[in-house]
Task: inverse folding
């Protein structure tokens, strides 16, 4: 049974957070911000999800944390699709990923759910909890991760060069290197289900998700490759980003993350 959260409560929590945040001015001499990966498991079929979607988009737009560069992944699960509305962005891959988090983190499977840096989970519309989790994750050490495109930006595919530095932590641990292609400024007019009659906006929606390989925890360069990123016909390239991150196979902690516009 999939849990559902109460929309009014989530909206109050979100508004309390948004009222307190604002863009942060950063002098050029300021310390670089640590990347923090924020995943939101959501669905257009869930009436409690739009406030969480809005919170994620606001965090992404404002980047209100002096010590964190927030990289977002909005992942639409497909288990709501039998409730009257087929979410156009839903995928079984997102559902499987959430199920994996549920097993490892000992949480229920529900929407909206946020997972920060692979190990801090909470109700996705809880802005106060999101702020706390992002600030906590920003204090963890991360490896350097460099991304660069090769080839014409107007083409339907481009080569992405990836190089990761030495990973913090246990050198005997195993790590997955993952690539997500995201699209922002997406809109849906929902015609059925719990959100019938609403126009919904989305940022950072995962369009493709790929495992690139394993990182070497013991080396000064933990991972290096070049991979081809192919665009879907309906995607708008000006709204796309490639997100690469390195995640422990044992506890799913994220030890490196970076994003680059297409």
Result:
């Amino acid at each position: 049974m999939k849990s559902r959260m109460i929309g009014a409560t989530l909206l109050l929590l979100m508004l309390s957070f948004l009222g307190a945040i604002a863009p942060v001015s950063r002098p050029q001499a300021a310390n670089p911000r640590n990347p923090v990966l924020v995943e939101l498991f959501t669905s257009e079929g869930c009436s409690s999800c739009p406030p969480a979607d809005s919170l994620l988009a606001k965090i992404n737009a404002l980047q209100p944390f002096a010590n964190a560069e927030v990289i977002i992944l909005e992942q639409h699960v497909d288990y709501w699709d039998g409730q009257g509305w087929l979410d156009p962005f839903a995928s079984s891959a997102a559902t499987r990923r959430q199920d994996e988090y549920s097993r490892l983190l000992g949480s229920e499977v529900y929407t909206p759910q946020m997972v920060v840096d692979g190990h801090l989970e909470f109700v996705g519309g809880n802005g106060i909890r999101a702020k706390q989790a992002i600030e906590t994750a920003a204090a963890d050490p991360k490896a350097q991760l460099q991304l660069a495109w090769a080839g014409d930006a107007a083409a339907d595919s481009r080569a992405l060069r990836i190089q990761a530095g030495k990973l913090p932590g246990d050198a005997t641990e195993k790590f997955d290197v993952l690539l997500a292609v995201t699209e922002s400024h997406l809109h849906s007019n929902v015609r059925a289900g719990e959100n019938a009659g609403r126009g919904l906006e989305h940022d950072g929606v995962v369009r493709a998700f790929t495992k690139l390989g394993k990182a070497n925890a013991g080396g000064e360069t933990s991972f290096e490759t070049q991979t081809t990123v192919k665009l879907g016909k309906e995607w708008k390239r000006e709204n796309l980003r490639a997100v690469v991150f390195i995640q422990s196979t044992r506890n799913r902690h994220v030890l490196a993350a970076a994003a680059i516009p297409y």
